[in-house]
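Intended use. Records like the one below are meant for learning the mapping from a protein sequence to its folded structure. Do not use them to infer anything beyond what is encoded.
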Amino acid sequence: MTHAFGLFWDVDGTMAETEGDGHRQAFNAAFAERGLPWRWSMDGYHQLLQISGGEERLRHWLATAPPGAPGDQAGQWAMAADLQERKQVHYGCIVAAGGLPPRPGVVRLIQAAAAAGWQQWIVTTSRRRAVEALLRTQPFQPLASAFCGWVCGDDVARKKPDPQAYAMALRQSGLAPHQVVALEDSPHGLEAVCRAGLRCLVTPSQVTADQRFVGAAAVVNHLGDGLQQPTTVVLGPALGPQAHVDLAYLQGLLPGGQPPSASPSLES
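Structure written out for the chain above:
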């Protein structure tokens, strides 16, 4: 097998719909546990996602002086750290309950890339603890060995849209930018990929579906699982004979790559 190609995976929103159904609910559970009168709605959380990182998001929120928030920055940051810790506990419980299944095509594509010898890395602003919680669940657990390494929010000083995490993954993998496709679901993630010099396939999530993805090599509704859940290409090259994103399609997104020939066939 060869490691001539790499696939770099974002986690939240890309591998599973973790934001609205997972992290947001976990934040709200942490607020309730601490007796705080805050509940983040889907619309409100959509805006808060402009801030990368859970603790950073909390600091930003607390600085807007919601009822019950400390008036000084030191107090706000201490509260943010406590709430983030409790949020991680609640998120782990949500994940363990099986409420966050993989998005269509994620399991299939990870397995296919592993079988073909592609280097796969997780590159995320989430903390390692949150990634571990997700990958401990079925059907993610059998896929853990497919990843050569992880770069998480704990590992970098600057989170997405800064390209630091992707630059670190490139250094550790030994791959060159022209060999790698990154999978993202958000404009911040896309910007980080582009600034690192990589090609990006975007699969918008529930909380990013209405946003624009300037600079993406392609945008699809999801990775697809054959006839049952076919992929729709929103932007970029047409699919080949498959009804889903496969390795040939990803190779076609790389510099000098040839996209698969379009075909009306929907064979899986």
